User: What shape does this take?
Amino acid sequence: MDWGALHTILGGVNKHSTSIGKIWLTVLFIFRIMILVVAAERVWGDEQDDFICNTLQPGCKNVCYDHFFPISHIRLWALQLIFVSTPALLVAMHVAYRRHEKKRQFRKGDEKCEFKDIEEIRRQRFRIEGTLWWTYTSSIFFRLVFEAVFMYAFYFMYDGFQMPRLMKCNAWPCPNTVDCFVSRPTEKTVFTIFMIAVSSICILLNVAELCYLLTKFFLRKSRKAGNSKHHPNHENKEETKQNEMNELISDSCQNTVIGFTS
Amino acid sequence: MNWAGLYTVLSGVNRHSTAIGRIWLSVIFIFRIMVLVVAAESVWGDEKSAFTCNTQQPGCNSVCYDHFFPISHIRLWALQLILVTTPALLVAMHVAYQQHQEKKLLVLTGHADPKHMEEVKKHKMRIAGSLWWTYVFSVVFRLLFEAVFMYIFYMLYPGYQMVRLVKCEAYPCPNTVDCFISRPTEKTIFTVFMLVTSSVCIVLNMAELVYLVVRACVRRSQHNSNPSSGKSSFYGHKLSSEYKQNEINQLLTEQDSSLKDMLRRNPGLQEKGDRCSAC
Assistant: This one.
């Protein structure tokens, strides 16, 4: 179970996302997860081994490292990426539930069901409206919250995003204040800034997607209200007629089947 | 065989689980196994090499490490995850057995064409009858394993915090020596994280158990209040069709075995039966 498996799981969600959502997913996988795996992990690979303190006192290095790096950047990013990608699973679960309902309808032999076969149901792309809209919007909201929380945790723990070359440590058992040297500080700073920048882009994309969804929702609502105000008799007459027909057909369907069974 | 293999095996079970069961499976794979693989394993990677004791005495380091870490957190979690996910295989085996019975019935009734066989393999089994008991037992075992491992964890590493310094005086260490653990804070963070997800999984399992029991009680009370299924509603018919199928299966197998028993005991019975049918 690794990043590849997460990619497989989330790739399915891609189909039911908005265009901004698809861009976000691509940015996440290529510019964050892939960079983490192929580059950043190597840079931080020797972080403790090459953390050198100017003392021979056993244990001083361990304690100083632990004091300055309560949790490594790499692990924080890994947790951030897992948490940020997980809300998309809410959407995947909702879509799977809807698909399951449609399949059930289809199996019952409902005339209302417009699909020719199960494969078509599986391939169908659901529009983001109704309850799915709420699920989708909540998932984006949670993504935003997680991104912000992790950015703040980062800033709080590491006092800004720069990796210093030298740290002065006087935790016990270090005899005095000792100088400790971090390995590859510049490379780490470069990658930290890169990951922060991409994280900000993802936050922007999420905000844009949220605005887009809200705008679409209000436009749709105003259009419906406008239609019912200006055309009270028309009133999506065709749609109401279709709905009535559908209800009649489904009622007669049920009665026929009950007739058969009794 | 690695975590990906386990994922393949268990995602088949997913189809026959309840909704809570699916959520549980997602939490296990994403928040526990994945975090273990991508993050926790690298935190504990240098646990022995960076375990430093304030002594030059050869062997003291190894002995003290062994004394304080009888089994590493990572290995305990791996064992816990394997044992906790395995009861789901009971359900998978039972489902496979039921599907096999259905296929046998199809063959007996002469519907053994590939289309029907595929249909048997694809349709979702309802959690009723003996499958309900298997499912409930699997959830109970999951709960049990989770609780046992949480307790073992607590016993081996009291309070779930990783200390920076441990004092060791096992032979061959000359005196009480200070030994320093690598990355104690990061380890504490991950220990607490894994503990929290473990508790979430325990809560999900309990919720699933309650849901299954309540559903069974409701179904039983419905069945008691409508004993005659002759004039059953459309939905009642649909719901009980699988029950009927299961009963047919049982009757067929019983008939099979009882016929065999009878013939074994009374070899002359078959001829009698033939003679009688002629009357």
Notes: The longest strand of chain B covers residues 165-168. The two ends of chain B are 65 Å apart (CA to CA). Residues 229-239, 269-279 of chain B have pLDDT under 50 and may be disordered.
